[in-house]
Design goal:
13% strand; 270 residues; Rossmann fold; 36% helix; five-stranded parallel β-sheet
């Protein structure tokens, strides 16, 4: 007779009296019928055949089709091709003229210099955090358009990073307005699925940091194109929140000035 629930796998632990009642009921079953009982633990129903085993197979609950794990042949998409990095050319290049700040958490060296130069070329003003805690405090009291974290800045890997943990828990009203880049030896450059899993907008392998200027010229316009309409909608409905400065992106200077006047009216009572 069945001993474990096919749903929760707990031992049924039926008393002698309960076993006797079940056997009596099974003996009275018409041919082709099943006895339905509920698990005393999870309360889910199960059907027993006349021999006391689970219905359908008529042998052992271990072979019940419902208990067999489903094997799905799922494969993630392949990392993107990086052939265009060799030439350093993009099909379309957009100039971003407005000055914004980028918070950088990387050890001093040639890689950080490459990152700083790339963001400066796109009119970002670099700000450096001395430690993870310093970076967290800066995030709490300042708005940054972008942030760059090396996975070894405050730990042996990203899982040990206090700053990354803070970013993962940041309210989405602020997080959506930050272009968050992760750099490290474990990442596959421009692999969007990997960036999504790690709560980032962009991942770059150490080997491609020297190409960061071309990578940013491709990814930042795409990011702004994705979130631009969302920000415009928030502004139109007066829901500016932590995104008030995002609207300067992708706009001409004339458009930026007009939008700035609208923001002033929203932010300051006259």
């Amino acid at each position: 007779m069945i001993k474990n629930c096919p749903h929760c796998q707990e031992n049924l632990k039926l008393s002698v009296i309960q076993v006797a009642k079940v056997q009596e009921a099974l003996a009275k079953l018409p041919e082709g019928k099943f006895l339905k009982i509920n698990c005393p633990h999870c309360k889910k129903p199960m059907e027993l055949a006349a021999n006391g085993e689970l219905a359908v197979t008529g042998r052992s609950e271990k072979k019940h089709p419902a208990l067999q794990p489903r094997k799905l042949d799922l494969k993630p998409p392949a990392p993107p091709q990086l052939d265009w990095l060799v030439s350093g050319k993009l099909e379309q290049e957009e100039a971003i003229k407005e000055v914004r700040e980028v918070l950088i958490l990387m050890a001093d060296g040639s890689d950080r210099t490459s990152v700083v130069d790339a963001f400066k070329e796109m009119d970002y003003s670099p700000v450096f955090a001395e430690s993870a805690q310093d970076g967290i405090e800066r995030v709490r009291f300042s708005n940054y358009a972008a942030m760059v974290l090396h996975s070894r800045f405050d730990g042996n890997n990203l899982a040990e990073s206090d700053f990354h943990d803070h970013m993962r828990k940041l309210a989405m009203t602020r997080r959506r307005s930050i272009f968050y880049t992760l750099i490290g030896p474990e990442f596959q450059t421009l692999y969007n699925l990997e960036a999504l899993v790690n709560s980032a907008n962009l991942v770059v392998n150490d080997k491609e940091v020297n190409k960061i200027r071309f990578i940013l010229k491709k990814t930042i316009p795409e990011y702004e194109e994705l979130f631009g309409p969302y920000v415009d909608t928030l502004i139109e409905h007066g829901q500016t929140g932590g995104l008030i400065w995002l609207d300067v992106r992708r706009k001409s200077r004339a458009s930026v000035k007009a939008r700035s006047d609208v923001l002033k009216d929203l932010l300051f009572d006259k």
